[in-house]
Amino acid sequence: xxxxxxxxxxxxxxxxxxxxxxxxxxxxxxxxxxxxxxxxxxxxxxxxxxxxxxxxxxxxxxxxxxxxxxxxxxxxxxxxxxxxxxxxxxxxxxxxxxxxxxxxxxxxxxxxxxxxxxxxxxxxxxxxxxxxxxxxxxxxxxxxxxxxxxxxxxxxxxxxxxxxxxxxxxxxxxxxxxxxxxxxxxxxxxxxxxxxxxxxxxxxxxxxxxxxxxxxxxxxxxxxxxxxxxxxxxxxxxxxxxxxxxxxxxxxxxxxxxxxx
Length: 261
Prior knowledge:
Elements: E1 8-12, E2 21-27, H1 37-51, E3 58-63, H2 74-77, H3 82-100, E4 106-110, E5 113-115, H4 117-123, E6 127-130, E7 135-137, H5 154-158, H6 160-169, E8 172-174, H7 175-180, E9 186-187, H8 193-205, H9 209-223, H10 227-241, H11 246-257
Parallel strand pairs: 2-3, 3-4, 4-6, 5-7, 6-9
Antiparallel strand pairs: 1-2, 7-8
C-alpha cells in the first residue's frame, strides 16, 4: 500500500536566545502529528545536523498545533510485513536515538496526545513539560504489537511497576498521573507553558557550555549498560509480530477511524 506522506519537521531558532536554542516541531498537524516515515526522516536529519552545531545550548521539541504526537501512523503500521516492520522500527529507533544522543539538553513541550512512539520520543528527551491537556499512553498491545525500542527507557524513568502497568494494559494516563509517575517534570496552564520552558532554558544558558555538554554525555553513558541489547531484542520482537495476522486484524478499526498508535 502506498501512503501519501506529507509529514515532516520544522526547525526554528527563536531570536530571543541569539541562536543558542533550536525549536524543532513535528509538522504533521493534519494527521495529529502522526509519526510517519517523513517525520522519522525529518527528526533524524534535523537532530544529526543540530548535533554538529557547536554554538547550540539547548533544543525544544514540540508538536505543531494542539497535539505533540498521536503515535505511529496506523496507515503505515497496517501495511507492514516482517521485513518492512524491521526496517520501519529500526529507522524509528535511529531517529529517537539521535534525539537522546543530542549533546545538549532537549526539552519536550507536550500538549494533547503523546501516545506510543511519541512517548518513546519524549522519554528520549531530558525534560518533559506539559499542560493539562496532555494524555500519555502506550496502546501497542491493543493493536497486536509490542511496545519496543526506546520503551526500554521507561523503567528507569517511571519505575518498573508503572512501566508494566502501562505497557501490559495499553491504558491512557492524564497529565496529573503522568506528573505523579515522574514522566512529566511539570504541568503548567496552557498560557504559561512557554514561560515555564523559558525558565528551564535560562537555567541551561546560565551553565558552563562545556560542563553542560559533559554532564549530558555522562547522563547518557549511565543509561547505556544493557540498553543496546534491549533495543535489538525489541526490534526482533516487533518484526516477528507481523508473522501473524494479529496486527492487521487489530489495527483495522483504527485504520478506518484514521487514528494513530
